[in-house]
Design goal:
5 helices; two-stranded antiparallel sheet; globular; 3-stranded antiparallel β-sheet; Arc Repressor Mutant, subunit A; alpha+beta
């Protein structure tokens, strides 16, 4: 019996706003783990979930690309994206991504985040609505 490797398991399906699921392949999940590890290094589990939420919220949004890799590698979005091959996700990051995939959301509809101590561009806080702060990151929609 041949298994359909294109079918995502239930935990890999995130409902879009239009009701259709976002299917995360193994490679997309691993890429998301690397981004969360790079962007939320030193943050709490909640902060790591929040970063994963922002990426998944963007995939669901009509204003952003439709896949995890396209969102992550979109120009000018995530400063760590060009160095992800060097990143090794921790168990905490893997748990955070898993929880975000299963629907745990700690930042609502937030589509942006930044660490004001490290940011070089402040257009997001000047033009978007503040949602909340988790650790060193500020989240916006």
């Amino acid at each position: 019996m041949k298994l359909n490797s294109n079918k995502a398991s239930p935990e890999e399906q995130i409902p879009r706003k239009d009701g259709r699921p976002i299917r995360l392949s193994y490679s997309h999940r691993k890429l998301l783990e690397k981004l969360v590890a790079a962007e939320a290094m030193g943050e709490s589990l909640e902060g790591q979930i929040a970063v994963a939420n922002v990426v998944l919220n963007r995939v669901k949004s009509p204003d952003f690309p439709n896949s995890v890799p396209e969102v992550i590698f979109e120009k000018w979005q995530f400063s760590s994206a060009e160095n992800l091959d060097q990143v090794i996700p921790t168990e905490s990051v893997k748990e955070a991504v898993s929880r975000a995939q299963k629907g745990e959301n700690v930042v609502g509809d937030a589509l942006f985040f930044l660490n004001p101590a490290m940011a070089t561009n402040f257009i997001v806080p000047e033009t978007k609505t503040f949602v909340k702060q988790i650790g060193e990151h500020y989240f916006y929609k």
